[in-house]
Design goal:
By secondary structure, the protein is an alpha+beta fold. The protein has 2 domains: about 100 residues, RNA polymerase II/Efflux pump adaptor protein, barrel-sandwich hybrid domain (OB fold (Dihydrolipoamide Acetyltransferase, E2P), Beta Barrel); about 210 residues, Chloramphenicol Acetyltransferase (2-Layer Sandwich), CATH 3.30.559. It is built from 10 helices and 22 strands. A 6-stranded mixed beta sheet has the order 13-22-21-20-16-19. A 4-stranded antiparallel beta sheet has the order 1-8-6-3, covered by helices on one side. A 4-stranded antiparallel beta sheet has the order 5-4-2-7, with no helix packed on it.
Length: about 425
């Protein structure tokens, strides 16, 4: 009996995903637990393992395809078993899903029974190509703009398309048409050129190199631009004496029964949560017409990952002890880096307030960007030594930490925002468990 491979639903907000990599080829032996494929949402990348033993009988969607969640993308079974029922089920499901970007037109032997999308090409008035060659190129997803025709007056004919080399996946074809990008040999099934092959290519000029950005990077860029365009952002800076925090951390590390490595960042976040409970007007969302104040603190933590910046939410952080908060922060960061974070936790609406720490990079002051619709975000800066007057002509140096608050001035005025920042300072300087 065949087993369909289904693209999982990884969050309530995710409707389609990009199928990035197949780790097995059609016909390969598959063992339960083997890494089978990976897929990408607009926030992160996930790996999926095989759930049964068998043979990978069919791959319905190629690498680079944008696929609706809960769609059958392949079939595992035993040699000789039919895959038609699973393929038909996948086709039916796709036609019924309005969110898909791929439309099924026909199946042809020369593409290995791959689903061929209906392509609307741009005007080809300046390109001399025969109708048969044009249809063949679109069916094979081959860009013919740069092909040198062998027909009369340089006209592109069918044999030019047949000898043109690797075809492209649907997603790669669309991007290449829109950007004019090209690639050499493909790494996809049947040596097809995938979206990753295009993204990995560099356009080299005489004085520069242009690197194409990933889908996640595009989403981050869009979010940053939207944040600055759709809010009135203002940043205040303050510094706090960090000696109390450092002293308590030293005592915690000295306790043999404390196995958790509690960091300065954990403790400052703990202090920020205490301050947020005292200033609920900044622990909320602003949608332009109303302010939603939250009773609980769902803390967003900015995490640097190889795939880009992610901001997972720690739900009900105000109910946690310092040890629990420290564990939760590390768990969320690791989930982001490993690609196992739920997309629902990455929504900007999932958190009520965000913290971003650049102090580990020696940054003394910066302006964090709001994660709208949140009203505020705090940037944690590095610890520096600052001179103070101890009286009697004695000057000493103490460690201070910089705190930068960006807030939406449409939702809160400068005075209450400053009072909140003063409370954060007080909670750090009088830190207690």
């Amino acid at each position: 009996m065949t087993t369909p491979i289904i693209l999982p639903k990884v969050g309530q907000s995710v409707e389609t995903c990009i199928l990035t990599t197949w780790y097995k080829k059609k016909g390969d032996v598959v063992k339960k637990g083997d890494l089978l494929f990976s897929f990408e949402t607009d926030k992160t990348v996930f790996d999926e393992n095989a759930t049964v033993d068998g043979i990978l009988l069919d791959i319905i969607f190629e690498e680079g395809s944008e696929v609706p969640v809960l769609t059958i993308i392949g079939v595992i079974g035993q040699p000789g078993e039919s895959v038609e029922q699973s393929r038909t089920a996948s086709t039916t499901g796709q036609k019924n899903n309005e969110s898909t970007t791929v439309t099924q037109e026909k199946l042809t032997p020369d593409t290995g029974n791959a689903i061929i999308p209906s392509i609307q090409r741009q005007s080809t008035d300046k390109i001399k190509i025969s109708p048969r060659a044009k249809n063949l190129a679109e069916g094979k997803r081959i860009l013919y703009d740069s092909i040198q025709g062998s027909g009369s007056e340089g006209r592109i004919i069918a044999r030019d398309i047949e000898s043109a080399g690797s075809s492209l996946t649907y997603a790669a074809y669309e991007q290449a048409k829109n950007t004019g990008m090209h690639a050499g040999e493909g790494t996809g099934i049947g040596n097809r050129i995938t979206l990753q092959d295009l993204d990995s290519k560099e356009q080299v000029g005489e004085e520069f190199i242009v690197n194409k950005i990933s889908n996640i990077r595009k989403r981050i860029a869009d979010a940053m631009q939207k944040s600055l365009q759709n809010s009135a952002q203002l940043t205040h800076h303050i510094s706090a004496d960090i000696r109390s925090v450092q002293a308590i951390r030293t005592r915690l590390k000295a306790k043999s029964n404390v196995e958790i490595n509690i960091t300065i960042n954990d403790m400052v976040c703990f202090a920020i949560i205490k301050a947020l409970k005292q200033h609920p007007d900044i622990n909320g969302h602003f949608n332009g017409t109303e302010i939603k104040e939250f009773k609980a603190v769902h803390l967003g933590i900015a995490v640097d990952t190889p795939r880009g910046l992610m901001v997972p939410a720690i739900k009900n952080a105000d109910r946690m002890t310092l040890e629990q908060l420290s564990t939760a922060i590390k768990k969320r960061a690791e989930e982001c880096r490993q690609g196992g974070i739920s997309p629902d936790l990455l929504l900007s609406e999932a958190a009520t307030f965000t913290v971003s720490n650049l102090g580990v990079y020696g940054i003394e002051m910066f302006t964090p960007v709001l994660n709208i619709p949140q009203i505020g975000i705090i940037g944690i800066n590095t610890i520096i030594q600052r001179p103070i007057d101890l009286g009697g002509g004695i000057i000493d140096f103490i460690p201070i930490i910089g705190i930068s608050l960006t807030y939406d001035h449409r939702a809160i005025d400068g005075a209450p925002a400053s009072r909140f920042l003063q409370t954060v300072k007080k909670e750090i300087e009088t830190f207690s468990l």
